[in-house]
């Protein structure tokens, strides 16, 4: 699409290759080739920070002329920048990157990889290591990415790969049942719907299938395609996303964890050709406040 045509990058990075945008690229191979063009066209003076735990990252290192900074999980000796998670719970992690330990409110291996990428580029640009570590410690997180409100987690995960990352992490940290609310976008890659249902069923104790930007497709048809992957896991189809979230929160007991996936920071639903105002976070706050008989706080637009 030539969106970055003519742009000279000083530094670039790659985390991992997952199934996304196949409605445009058709195949994962085409998607990889599109990403590869970024690294093929880099000059020798540029920096390419690449995840060597992903074979695609190692492949990109072979096709670029840029200075490669490799990073990966600390169990491997190959990467130049190595990190590990020393402790993790719902509130955050204690991590170590190249011998430097720190605490962060971020949670999950995927966020360690994000920090490794940021560290690699910052280090290559000669930013002092104490400043990098301080930034990780002070960073409050990204709205809609593992955003926890009491026993509810809101996350943008909307592909099989991202759902697997988030749900496997939640399964590991939950002390009770895991309840997940999610849907799949209309007029987008339909091949990911059944796998998303399978992943939800693999990790969750209860699944609620709902709307997520159905656009011009039949919402119930999308839900039924997801349902084919859910199999025998207890589940409901509640197309009204507000009611689906309310139901999940109402079901949750002591120690249970509710995950609301797919929209994250978005403040709308695309239904037909209309953008209807909708925020998962606002709905979650309303539902929790109603449950506890308190007035929900207002949320400023972002």
UniProtKB/TrEMBL annotation:
One Pfam family it belongs to: Mur_ligase_M
Q: In which pathway does it act?
A: Cell wall biogenesis; peptidoglycan biosynthesis
- Keywords noted in UniProt: Cell cycle, Cell division, Cell shape, Cell wall biogenesis/degradation, Peptidoglycan synthesis
Q: What is its main location?
A: cytoplasm
Q: Which residue intervals define the domain Mur ligase C-terminal in the entry?
A: 144-264
An annotated GO cellular component of this protein is: cytoplasm
Q: Where in the cell does this protein reside?
A: Cytoplasm
InterPro entries in alphabetical order: Mur-like_cat_sf, Mur_ligase_C, Mur_ligase_C_dom_sf, Mur_ligase_cen, UDP-N-AcMur-Glu-dNH2Pim_ligase
Please state every residue range assigned to the domain named Mur ligase central: 2-120
Q: Name one GO molecular function term.
A: ATP binding
A GO biological-process term: cell wall organization
Could you tell me the superkingdom of the organism this chain comes from? Bacteria
Family recorded in the similarity comment: Belongs to the MurCDEF family. MurE subfamily.
- The name under which this protein is listed is UDP-N-acetylmuramoyl-L-alanyl-D-glutamate--2, 6-diaminopimelate ligase
Species: candidate division WOR-3 bacterium 4484_18
